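Last lecture ended with a question: if I hand you only a sequence, what can you say about the shape of the protein? Today we answer it with a concrete record. The protein is SEA domain-containing protein. Below, first the input exactly as provided, then the predicted structure, then a couple of comments.
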Amino acid sequence: MNGDIELVRFRTETDEPSDNNNSQSEQAVRQQITAGCEDQSFHNKDEATEESHLLSADQSNSNSTQCHSDTTCRMEQLISDTVSSDDETGRKGLCMYLNRKVVWRLRLWMLIALGLLLLAILVLALALILYSVLYVDEDDIFDGKSFVVPLFYSGSLRLVNQNFTEDLLSPTSSQSQALSGLLEQKLSNVYSSSPALGRYFSSAGFYAFRNGSVTAYYWLKFLMPQEHKQLLHYTLSREMVYNVLRQYLYDVEADVDPLHYLDPAAIYMEVGNRTLIND
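The predicted structure:
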């Protein structure tokens, strides 16, 4: 009995340390498990927190991106409107600038052209003045004293508006002498003012009048130099002398003196002779 009691005590005593060890082991295991769970929970909590932060950041970034996108759109629209407005204003300003520039250039070219035109006119005027002063026409240089060879033409003229009277038949009558002097002066003016014949013309006269709208008979005297063959063929030819008188009567006579109008179509002219002239 006593031995059984002691055995039980022994077992109890021996089992108690084992149980204590087991209990300590279990407690240690439990603490490790608990720590591990806590670590896992903390880790999961950190991961969840991190994920929530990431989600929040993503959402924030999304919202920020959306906001930024909206702001960008508005800014782009505003910039586009501003640029469009600026472009329109710029185009108008550019057009005005180009117009002013073109007008300025046109005015400049007009001033240049006007200056050149005035310069050309001045140069031309000076050239004409110098030409008139310095130029000497060789045909204007002649010695009238060397013209000694006479040349005569004679013919008849008809005064259309003159009434014939018996006094005109007498060369010594006052009416005959007055009409002769008038017609002589007229013929002298025609030929002395002619550029081609003026230097050679000497005198003119009338020697008779006849009835029939008053027909007047005239003579013309020209003087030529010794060498006059070319003059007889061209300058002092019958055709040249006749045409000078005829052209003058067509151009001037009807307006200048209607009463003593000479009919150009009734002019007659031929080579004359010295016997008609009263020296």
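Comments.
1. The longest helix spans residues 2-134.
2. The beta strands are 149-158, 201-210, 215-224, 268-271.
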